[in-house]
Amino acid sequence: MKEQRIKNQIRRLRFEANEMTQAELAEKASVTRQTIIALEAQKYSPSLELAFRIANVFDVPLEEAFQFD
Amino acid sequence: MKFLNNYSNRELNIWAELILNILVSLFFVSKVFTSNQFGGEVLVQIISTTIILAIVYSIVVFGAINALTKREEKDERDYIYELKSYRISYYLSHGGILGIICLIVFNALYQENIGLLTPPKIAMILLIIALLSSTGKSLTQLFNYRKNI
Predict the structure, then answer these.
(1) What does pLDDT average to in each consecutive run of 10 residues of chain B (149 residues)?
(2) CB distance from B62 to chain A under 8 Å?
(3) Is A45 left (phi over 0), alpha (psi -120 to 50) or beta?
């Protein structure tokens, strides 16, 4: 399987944001919970738009939420 | 009910679609080949029975899935997997149609009756190609969803 080169800190950011649940994050970022699960497992690279939406939910810069390996 | 928690509404719908395709294929092909009727009234009867059974299945199963699980809006990942599955479906259907064209050309060139080329039989092959292509589409989607969990 092709390894994803975009890593993310979503799980850590969720816990730092009062242990936000995957469902809550999914709702705020307008995606399904399955997409959040796939993102946290580093098995899906989001579009630039989704990456910005997720970073906005946590109120952090994009590069803190996502890194390119 | 715990089983339902592991699958999203969309995945369950795809599973239901896949099972419907398999059931329709099995029912239709077995009925046609056991009765050995490739045309006429019997075929119309088999087709109508298949359609009625598929409608009943759809109402019951899709209704139950949508009642028991929360319906979610499609997101970018759903669209990407849908596009990937459409590509597989496209290759399968075009491969099948190319196969039929080759059979017709082969038959015309060598003037051999290979027993496949009466219009009802070609219609039957087209139907099977449509079912295969739909099954391929569902399988690709399920593979992509499960691969990333």
Answers:
(1) 71 92 87 71 82 92 88 88 95 94 82 67 84 93 84
(2) no
(3) beta
- The domain spans of chain A are 6-64
How far apart are the CA of A37 and the nearest CA of chain B, in angstroms? 7
Which CATH number is associated with domain A6-64? Answer: 1.10.260.40
B108, with CB counted inside 10 A (0-12, 13-18, 19+), is exposed
Length of chain A: 69
**Subunit contact A34:B145, Cβ cutoff 8 A:** yes
pLDDT digits 0-9 by tens, A1-22: 556 678 999 999 999 998 999 9
Q: Which residue in chain B is spatially nearest to A41 when comparing CA positions?
A: B149
Q: What is the ipTM of this complex?
A: 0.82
* CB contact at 8 A, A48 and A27: no
Q: Do B75 and A30 touch (CB under 8 A)?
A: yes
A33 touches chain B (CB under 8 A): yes
Alpha-carbon dihedral angle through residues B133, B139, B142, B144, given to the nearest 10 degrees? -90
